[in-house]
Amino acid sequence: MAPVQGLVHPKEYDIKNSNVELIGTDLDHKVKYNSAATEPAWNDGRVGVEPGLFIWRIEDFAVMPIPKDIYGQFFDGDSYIVLHSWQTGPKDNQKLSHDVFFWLGGKTSQDEAGTAAYKAVELDEFLHGAATQHREIQASPSEDFVALFPRLTVRRGGVASGFRHVEEEGEKEEITTLLRVFKHAGSGRDSIVVHEVEPTWRSLDDGDVFVLDKGDKIWVWQGRKCSPMEKAKAAQVVHDMTIAKHVDVEVVSQTESRSRAVVRLLGAGDEDAGAGTVFEAANPLASRAERAARPRRLFRLSDASGKLSFELAKEGAASVSTADLDGNDVFLLDDEGRAIWVWEGNGASGAERAMWLRVAQSYMRKLESDNGQAGAYLTPIAKVREGSESAAFWRALQVA
Fold this sequence. Notes:
Number of strands: 19
Low-confidence stretches: 1-10, 18-23, 161-172
Number of domains: 3
Oligomer: single chain
CATH class of the largest domain: Alpha Beta
Order of helices and strands: EHEEEEEHEHEEEEEEHEHHEEEEHHEH
CATH architecture of the largest domain: 3-Layer(aba) Sandwich
Radius of gyration: 23 Å
Number of helices: 9
Strand content: 25-35%
Distance between the termini: 47 Å
């Protein structure tokens, strides 16, 4: 059940846009670092010092750590910052490498999204610019983000400070929560996602497992095409749910006549719950196909001419290489729709560095308007700095 059932945001963030201004000058870097040096979230003695996973949620403009026992659980009304730090290099000279993700829920507010993006930049400053920054959106998480969690869970609701009541006084809604358990096809790994969906029979799909919480009883509905891994993960989800409350649990397969009871509980009529009914609900996470495959393209963002320009530098899968990168500018690599990578040269100007997120989002809007690629905005975005490139960036650039 969502922690703030009956509450909604007064103003949601348009996930296609950004309200964050990144100046990028040397003075700006110093100001951001000084700000980061006084941010309690970064100054716990572990951030930037120890390897591991750290997660914070934006609450009323503040960066608040969340308990480790709920790592991997996100709410669609919130924005989060996730830091993954790990050791790299030879054993006698190891250093920490970092990924900084700002995750934006589908119903997060403009203020929360803006704060998460700004604070992610600040955290990178605190780490001396060595981190790879990632913009993550609920509907289309990157492979790197999903791989951080044995089980990624997305629930409805969010932090209470960002919501307003919509229930009439005295009105009380019956508890009905439906969770979809599935393997994330875009991850390329055995990553399982648990995603809260609309509690209706139209949310069912033959290929997945669903957990229906009716308050006094929990039902597990196994689609006829679901995998053993999905069944196992659903069992873990139910185990976690029953620790907090002792209720009956019933597991049914779609191939059993008893499974029709679940479909009826979700509002279906007899004609919708028959033995031969096929359920094909859209997956709550977008696939790469929905983002539309595109040619590999490399763009240069430069103000060398005295005016900021954004121009195509190379096109074609085999034509892009490290030789095309110039440390005096910023480059955007569209990895055939899989991800958009921004490479920031150490000699890039403040204006060039300031515009990376805005330019990436403008590029995706142009794909939507000019090329009719409605799902372009779902493409994951990441930024690396010259000398601190991630392995994922080099793979995208096709460097052996």
